[in-house]
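Database export, one record per block. Field names are fixed; values are copied verbatim from the stored entry.
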Amino acid sequence: MATDVQVPALGESITEGTLAQWLKKPGEAVAQDEPIASLETDKVSVEVPSPVAGVMSEQLVKEGDTVAVGAPIARIDESGTAAAPAKAAAEATTNPPGAGETPALKGDSTAPVAEAEDDQVTTLSPAVRRAVLEYHVDPSKIQGTGKDGRLTKDDVIAAAQAGSTPAQAGGQAEAKLPSTPVQQPSAPGPRPSSGDRREERVKMSRLRQTIAKRLKDAQNTAAMLTTFNDVDMSAVIDARTRYKDLFEKKHGIRLGFMGFFVKACALAAKDVPSVNASLEGDEIVYHDYLDVSVAVSAPKGLVVPVVRNADSMSFAEIEKTIAAYGKKAKEGTLTVDEMSGGTFTISNGGVFGSLLSTPIINPPQSAVLGMHRIEERPVVKDGQIVARPMMYLALSYDHRIIDGREAVTFLVRVKEAIEDPTRLLIDL
């Protein structure tokens, strides 16, 4: 009996996706609810689980194909058995031990590597499996740091960056295909040329296409303007230095800068509610809550998970939520619901070294706060030139909803709260 695997519901307003990668091949055993494929939607990557246990008998679409919600993409034979053992037996009959060995490979210690690798790959999580395929590394040669010595995605990335999967020592040939395919004269792709000049054409992912479209739509639709200010970070840095150890000991999470800025924005939004509003047709919708979209860099692009009811959360709750979202973004496991419905955005380009920028609004929101790197600069305090850790802040806003006076007032309120964090405690 064969069961079709269908594309699951992908979230509100999402009707199709792209089959990014097959996680199972025809003939491989599949457990119930085990992911067999990865779909890429306009917002997130979604894994497709098998509804039954059995053996994948057929793949109905190819990687890169666009598939609609509810469409069948594979068939699972519930009465089938994995083809791998039969294939191995056939190969053993056709090629007895020692037959066809070259002098370079005879007695090579890499002979059992493929089998060991297959055993290990079956225990890899989908995220790790994708990383192994993406970085072309051998998981059997990587020391896992996860539970029970299992590989994590970070292990794979670190191994790829360190080049920890070279050919076997002693100059023996590797009994596998090279990680980089050999360019054939007729094959498409970069043309060989003198020197190191190369070109590569890569199709934009659905996520990158959506990001491009939404950002351009924001520029074309909103009357965007940016106002700037700078803030002395001395008080926040001093507070973190004094309480970071106690904070981490009590809450199990590090005290970061984002918690201060989220709380400062929540305080400022009470005085300037239009910054936390949105435009729907000819109506302005004001929110009595603050759902902060926190811009997070993911491997396939920028994503904005939402910290809901941030105005009523504690510092520890904010930091834990952001840390959890950062981990999910790195693993590609954020859901559509976790990235929908924000009322205000904070983007921290400072973690990448940005000194100043003009962030783009995330529609239908009306404003976005841009944070930047902290650096010591000379400032005048009480008539004296002193060095202070300063940060530039940028507030991009929709001038259709927010007047310049309101935008400047909001940014000044944030500046005051950061330079005197006591205001966050006594609601000033």
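Remark 1: The chain has a mean pLDDT of 78.
Remark 2: The domain at 116-165 is CATH 4.10.320 (Dihydrolipoamide Transferase).
End of record.
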